[in-house]
Design a protein that fits this description.
It contains ten helices and 15 strands. By secondary structure, the chain is of the alpha/beta class. The strands form five sheets. Strands 4-3-1-7-12 form a five-stranded mixed sheet. A three-stranded mixed sheet has the order 8-15-14. Strands 10-11-13 form a three-stranded mixed sheet, with no helix packed on it. It comes from Rhizobium loti. InterPro entries: DUF6492 (IPR045499).
Length: 306
Amino acid sequence: MNSRFVPDAARIAPLPRTPSAAVVTASYAPDFERCRLLCETMDRHLTGFARHYILVEHRDLALFRQLEGSRRTIVDERDLLPRWLWVFDDPLSLFRRRVWLSFRTQPLRGWHVQQLRRIAIAAHAGEDVLVFCDSDVAFLKPFDTGAFWRDGKARLFRRDGVLANDGHDEHRIWSRNAASALGIDLVKGSTHDYISTLIAWRRETVNAMCKRIEKVHGRDWVSVVGSARKFSECMLYGRYVDDVLDGAGHFHDSAEFCRVHWNGEALSDEEFCRFVDAMAPEQVAIGMQSFIGTDVGRIRRLIGLD
């Protein structure tokens, strides 16, 4: 560890006895109905949070404002990210997709910018803990966000040692790029995986992470992270906590609160029911990756919302 940054760990104070929490969801127009379902199931099952932030591109703002409420705020990415990052319809995709361009980053796709939004919201939110939940998630059981803190520490999701196994080439690239952004010696590798949905970060730690990136590189953190097209916000935060802060202010847990169907074919009704029945006792939500194409109406019907 570079001794210049040791004071980072010293500044990590315990969370308040009852810290405030916000749920954060990055979404876009094609996932609107999935996001609506998430909101409905959150309102039915989720407790312990003060606000739900939904982060969207400017052109999707009016659509998502249908979901706004007393505890739910729609946030325009233009209020989060630098104005030098411009978004266009991409002619290379016959204008079906969007691309974010600048002279300071690689060309970025929507999934890149969603990650940048999740990091950037920490500078604008006021809550102590940020709980990240994808828009293709639905809660099926009661859940309180108090599960994300214990004895003044925040819960950091971490699966130990999995990157040492075969089949995680992309995750290893994300981990290495996170180390580069954070100024961690690349010789000091990591085999831990921090990627999941329904996970939590300390807001003050995210802001400290961004300041470190800017101090290491001498320019704003968005341009640093966006200069490599292969990055993961979860890897970035996890490696900051473990490799820079030596875990200060956090405790580790590998249990996944959300059971996710990551890839493959859309599930039949029978397969969907088996998938739900196989949820572990600690799992309170399911995620059906939107690119798989599972019909939202079918999900609503199968979980009893229609």
